[in-house]
Amino acid sequence: MKRASRGQRRPSPVVPATVRLRGIWINTARYSEVVRAFLDRYPGAIVRMDGRELTSGPDEWCVNRKIKSLRDFSMTDGGRVVLSFHDDPADLFAPEDQIDLVEELARRQLLRFKILPVKQ
User: Fold this and answer.
1) Can you tell me the distance from the alpha carbon of 42 to that of 94, in angstroms, rounded to the nearest whole number?
2) Could you tell me the residue range of the domain that residue 93 belongs to?
3) What's the confidence (pLDDT) of residue 118?
4) Which terminus of the chain has a lower count of CB atoms within 10 Å, N or C?
5) Rounded to whole angstroms, how far apart are CA atoms 25 and 56?
6) What pLDDT is attached to residue 6?
7) Residues 112, 102 contacting (CB under 8 angstroms)
8) Who contacts 114 (Cβ-Cβ below 8 Å, separation ≥6)?
């Protein structure tokens, strides 16, 4: 993809319907906004930070400084992971079924993403 010059918007990647996805790698500097968007979509989600399940509301922990200090983060809904990273928030990952939300956040310029296709 060509780089957009200053002032130009870069088109967000569009996923062809024929591509089978494995997952989505998310690149952002606005971790708290991305996490809050996922929390809005999954209000009953269970959040774990460095192995501990959180019982407090996101106003207490959902800030970039806190998220960037973590080694492990996961958000699960109904037993399935919807957002996670291990080692570093730069490795933020969402499963393939989250593509609609990820594309919406890319259109709002909160993140960029890369599709990790199934190896054939």
Assistant:
1) 13
2) 31-117
3) 66
4) C
5) 27
6) 47
7) no
8) 13, 24, 25, 27
Residue 10 lies in a domain: no
In a domain, 6, yes or no: no
| DSSP result, the chain | -PPPPTTPPPPPP---TTPPEEEEEEE-S-HHHHHHHHHHH-TT-EEEETTEEP-S-HHHH-SHHHHHT-SEEEEEETTEEEEEEES-GGG-EEEGGGHHHHHHHHHTTS-EEEEEEPP-
Each residue's pLDDT tens digit, 68-112: 999 999 999 999 999 999 999 999 999 999 999 999 999 999 999
Kindly report, residue by residue over 37-61, the tens digit of the pLDDT. Answer: 999 999 999 999 999 999 999 999 9
Residue matched to tokens 């996923």: 15
